[in-house]
Amino acid sequence: MADIRLEITKNPKQKPVDEGSLGFGKIFTDHMFRVSWSKERGWYDPEIIPFGDLTLHPAATVLHYGAEIFEGMKAYRKADGSIQLFRPEENFKRLNRSAARMGLPEYPVEEGMKALKALLKLDEDWVPHNEGTSLYIRPFMIGVDEFLGVHGVGHAVLYIILSPSGSYYPEGINPVKIMIEDEDVRAVRGGTGEAKCGGNYGASTRAGIRAEERGYSQVLWLDGVERRYIEEVGAMNIMFKIAGKVVTPALTGSILPGITRKSILEMLRAQGIDAEERRISVDELIQAAEDGTLEEAWGCGTAAVVSPVGWLMYQGKEYVIGGAAIGETTQKIYDELTAIQWGKKPDPFGWIVPLD
Ligand SMILES: *Cc1c(COP(=O)(O)O)cnc(C)c1O
């Protein structure tokens, strides 16, 4: 592939001074990566350009038929000032699995890594310094055919944008309230549940709003067929500690295969801790909540790393988990994973990719 063309911005923005009020995904760096694809030419014109609005034809496929996939990962600044990534190849590999499911083109993982590193080097001063902060990285791909017919995508564009983000837990880790949804479903086997695509979020919005109205921060989804087996939380996978054992729903085709989920399982198993992947019915979960064997529950994903669940609502009844305090295992996983991600501890797994 051609070298990346570089167009430096003439209007660099003021970098945020107060890293305490960064929040998540609200401000963006000076540049973005863009590469185009067509059926005839393959990938062409990789370039880093000033961050700015997109111009789209009103008939563009993405706007009508949901031809969109995305990824989410972070760059972390170590105490010595250097920058590192956590398993970024996994994100580019998953982007390609999502692409295959959605009829979008695959982008070579090495090219994705090359583009990401070049963009990060250019905007590296945007990686924040404060404890718990990071630079959130959002690659995404859209179909851009200028044609309303329903058809396979013939033109696509892949972008990477960067957003300095604040600590997910500025006030310490507080357990969240989760509502088990038994009406809407997020995904079914054979559908797009295991692809990271915007459409899954579109389908999830109504239940999310309903949960929020009742004072719950997120939805816990059940399987789309029997509405009986636990799948995952809004934008996180879910794990439980039941009677001393860590369990998480098996990847049955409708669950997003999280890289945080995979990393936690690998970390636990490396320590000789048994972690089960299997189907977990909501009846089993509620039974465990009632008899006190549901010791801990936590969501896991790139944004939060882990998010302890303190309350579960199901069919009008609320269950308190672990006294609504962060559990021992949840805390341990959080401490060990974040120590590797921010470079406070050596990485025995080969997960870290330094930006050099
Ligand atoms: C991205 C995502 C996750 C978490 O994946 P990570 O790779 O751990 O960040 C879980 N569920 C859904 C629906 C997601 O979109």
Description:
This protein is α+β, with helices and mostly antiparallel strands and 356 residues long. Helix content is 24%, strand content 30%. The chain has seven helices and 18 strands. Strands 1, 2, 3, 4, 5, 6, 7, 8 and 18 form a nine-stranded mixed β-sheet that branches. β13, α5 and β14 form a beta-alpha-beta unit. The chain is globular, with a radius of gyration of 21 Å. It starts with a strand and ends with a strand. The mean pLDDT is 96. Bound molecules: pyridoxal-5'-phosphate. Pyridoxal-5'-phosphate binds at residues 72, 196, 232, 235-237, 256, 258-261, 301-302.
List key phrases describing it.
nine-stranded mixed beta sheet; alpha+beta; 356 residues; single chain; globular; binds pyridoxal-5'-phosphate
